[in-house]
Amino acid sequence: KRAGVPEMTLVRPALPSDVHTMHRFICDLAEFEREPDAVNATPAQLARALFDGSDTPSGRPALYAHVAEVNGEIVGMAIWFLNYSTWTGNHGIYLEDLYVVPEYRSRGVGTALMGELASIAVEHGYERFQWWVLDWNSAAIDVYERMGAVPMAEWTVHRLSGDQLRALAARRNGR
Fold this sequence. Notes:
With 175 residues, the chain is α+β, with helices and mostly antiparallel strands. The protein has helices at residues 19-32, 43-52, 109-124, 138-147, 162-172, and strands spanning 9-13, 64-70, 73-85, 90-100, 129-131.
């Protein structure tokens, strides 16, 4: 047994009863990422995305989550969804949020969550598991690189949201 690793880290799929804790973790993560006022999502929206699916074209949930428990207390979460590579012809896992409460960091909880998602990817024949990490979060980058993750430095992320998203949709719809 490694020093500092909790004896009983259980990683399991999230349940509806976990939503409020996960929402609190999302708010804590936003604060850590220097965007404390950026979270507009509500627990109800998170629950709908994870367990209802009424907001998706298929009517099935498109978002997944796992939580890590130590001695019955939720101390971490991974929120993820499937993506698809036209090059590999396979789905992959995109990790949207990984969060571990501060007092459980460096104790194997994040690695347990990442390992669970890696296992899901391998079990289903997915060829990729990817995520973003802020360039200033050197502690996380070090952990990910020790796991064998490779930075995709040649790619630049682009985003449309808010007014820009609505303007492009309006052009498409002739407004």
